[in-house]
Amino acid sequence: MEEEVRIKDSDLGSTFIDKIKKYKTYLIVGAVVIVIICIFLIFRSKGSSEHYDYLIVGSGLYGATFNYLAKLNGKTTYIVERRPVVGGNLYCEKMEDIWIHKYGPHVFHTDNKKVWDFVNNMTHFNPYIQQTVAKVEDKLYSLPFNMWTFYQLWGVTTPEEAKKKIDEQKYTGEIHNLEEQAMSLVGKDMYEKLIKGYTEKQWGRECTKLPPFIIKRLPTRFTFDTNYFNDRYQGIPEGCYNAMMDQLLKDTKIETGVDYNKNRKKYEKMADKIVYTGKIDEYFGYKLGKLKYRTVRWDTEVKDVANFQGAAVINQPDKNVPYTRVIEHKHFEPHNKELQAKQKTVVSKEFSEEWDETKEGYYPVNDEENNNLYKQYKELADKETNVLFGGRLAEYKYYDMKDIIENVFKQWNY
Fold first, then answer.
1. For 179-201, how does the pLDDT look when each residue is reduced to its tens digit (9 = 90+)?
2. Which one from 53, 225, 400, 403 is the annotated catalytic residue?
3. Among 56, 67, 95, 285, which one has the highest count of C-beta atoms within 10 angstroms of its own C-beta?
4. Widest pairwise Cα distance in the chain
5. Catalytic residue among 54, 198, 325, 377
């Protein structure tokens, strides 16, 4: 009996081995497939290989707003940022308990209630009215041009007197440059006293060599209203712009210190679409030539006084002064009485300079030559089917903050 059992067991083993031999090829193929799947899953689990709907290049206002609305629509996002901090030019930092607008002063203003409600949903905005002053030699002038300005210039006290004075000085000939354009709008005195020096420092060129379209209009008010902006809604976020940007970027994976254009192969595979907010000519490797920009630098210092100049911004049109304006940051928080009383203030002198690749590009030089070069880059950009170019640098155009948000709203039909 035991022998019979052994024979049957042997027969079973032989049958099993025969079946393995028969299906050997299929078993090997199956094992290889399983190994490949396992390897794929291992690499996919690593952070850099996760896949997203959108890779956003830049965490400034365009990129951050796009990120917020994308996530609101159920999309996944990943952001890479060249700087070590997020927020683009809206980034603020504290010095002596005062919020410093690190990349230049920003006052949010808009007539669009939808935009105003949107930013106020991000964070609370303190009311703030920008009232700018211009200093020329030892005299101060109110900006933008209003009845106070006209009184300071000419001693006139009525709108009729002011209009007559401007009309007497207006340039009426053919317009070829910015100087002639400005004088055709506000006359000789205001141009020479309050526009010429400031503009030439800002652009690094004589006004006679700048195109007229840079100044399309010069706001002129025949009232004593010193509000710099005409928009209905104005303010600055409590906690500066960091508070607003933190909400726009909330729960988002962000990698800082990344030069996307130098690491494009690594990142472009991470998402179905790219949102690019950097310089458009840099994206294409400058192959058509380099667009020109103006850059800005700030010399910032702490003063041991409660109030240095009495205003947040004082422009410096005087050609003998090397900087374009002086910013006293604590005046952007006029409601903070404790801060205002403190015997410390922070002041930044702003200098406008020529751009090179070692510096940040702030303002596009929108003359005919550069605009034509941008159009060529725009044609290349339009052929990039999975890349959206948006924002000041990618579109080679100066935008107010409200314009940026409105443009992103259009992208999402918001």
1. 999 999 999 999 999 999 999 99
2. 400
3. 56
4. 131
5. 325
